[in-house]
Amino acid sequence: MTPAELKNRVLRKLRILGSGQTASAERTAIVTDAYTSVYNRLKRKNLVTWALIGNIDDAVSDALITLVAYQACDDFHIPEQRILRLKVLADEAMTDLIDLMRPEYVSTHTRVPYF
């Protein structure tokens, strides 16, 4: 996923952008700031494997969209009920990212032979 796709998906998750609509420069700038903030926080925790301006790994894209959406809530004046729901989803997303970035994480079950 490209950073531009991420921004559009964040705006859709926040219910600001409808299907087929394009984001204004102001809204894109707000999401860019939120993404940069989330990226830097994840980088400090060693939870990124992609460059800030590079393509985003599909394995982390859904979690990242949720984290960026939650980060941008205040700037878009999202209703309190939606913010609470996004907080729950963001907590789950952070747990997912931590799991995905663990060196021993395996995304599929592997049969281990016992002797």
Summarize the structure.
This protein has 115 residues and is mainly α. The chain is 63% helix and 0% strand. The chain contains four helices and no strands.
Which helices and strands appear, and what pairs or packs with what?
Blueprint: H1 3-13, H2 25-44, H3 58-76, H4 80-101
Helix pairs in contact: 1-2, 1-3, 2-3, 3-4
How would you describe this structure in keywords?
mainly alpha, globular, 63% helix, 115 residues
Structure report:
It is a single chain. By secondary structure, the protein is mostly helical. Helix content is 63%, strand content 0%. It has helices spanning 3-13, 25-44, 58-76, 80-101. The termini are far apart. The relative contact order is 0.15. The mean pLDDT is 89.
Strand content: under 5%
| Tertiary shape | globular
**Largest sheet descriptor:** none
Structural class: mainly alpha
